[in-house]
Design goal:
Blueprint (H helix, E strand, L loop, with lengths): L3 E3 L4 H9 L4 E3 L6 H10 L4 H18 L6 E10 L2 E3 L5 H11 L3 E12 L2 E14 L4 H9 L3 H6 L13 E5 L2 H4 L4 H10 L3
Parallel strand pairs: 1-2, 1-3
Antiparallel strand pairs: 3-4, 3-5, 5-6, 6-7
Helix pairs in contact: 4-5
Length: 195
């Protein structure tokens, strides 16, 4: 399998790649996402477009300084009725987000992009449908107490591979997509990739 650079500090994404026999080196993109999101929202971009743009930006930035190497950028966002929900900035913000999602249907959108020499060569976006159960504020706080800061700020407000699974009454879609990396299409592309 092809060896790539992962332009993400997500341990979950790295684990997904390794479990699928894709070797990777990690190089953080250090993209400041908030100004990019604000600019795209001001132009009327929907959450899917924002996710795609951020994945491409991360991949392109790292690939510009890693000549002739294939770089994977990724981004995941929550789409609640067409509105972008970003990662929480602190625990109070995490509670606010959980209250917004409480008892509602939303989509988790994950975009991936492969770039080489600063130019996108391939991208893919997948989405999963999630319907959250209804909880009291006390129950939501109890859930948040179980999640470490590192995991809370890195992976939206729920860990589908851990205690977050219990937040939902319905999940439709690929678990790898929910965890931030729709792996199947990536594997298909890499299998046929010719440098």
């Amino acid at each position: 399998m092809y060896k790539i650079i992962l332009a993400s500090k997500s341990e979950v994404r790295k684990d997904i790649l390794e479990k699928n026999n894709i070797e990777c080196n990690v190089v953080h993109s250090n993209v400041d996402e908030d100004p990019v999101k604000d600019s795209l929202i001001a132009k009327g971009a929907n959450p899917e477009t924002i996710s795609k743009n951020l994945a491409e930006l991360k991949a392109n930035k790292v690939s510009q300084i890693n000549e002739n190497r294939l770089v994977l950028g990724a981004d995941s966002v929550i789409d609640l009725n067409g509105k972008l929900i970003s990662k929480p900035s602190d625990r109070q913000d995490a509670l606010r987000i959980l209250k917004l999602l409480n008892g509602k249907k939303h989509y988790l959108i994950s975009s991936i992009c492969l770039s080489m020499n600063g130019v996108m060569v391939w991208n893919h976006t997948d989405k999963a449908l999630l319907i959250m159960k209804e909880f009291s504020e006390e129950q939501l706080l109890t859930y948040l107490d179980k999640i470490s800061d590192e995991k809370l700020y890195a992976y939206n407000v729920y860990q589908i591979e851990g205690p977050g699974r219990n937040l939902f009454e319905k999940i439709e879609g690929d678990q790898n997509t929910i965890m931030g990396l729709p792996i199947l299409m990536l594997k298909n592309y890499l299998r046929d990739f010719k440098c």
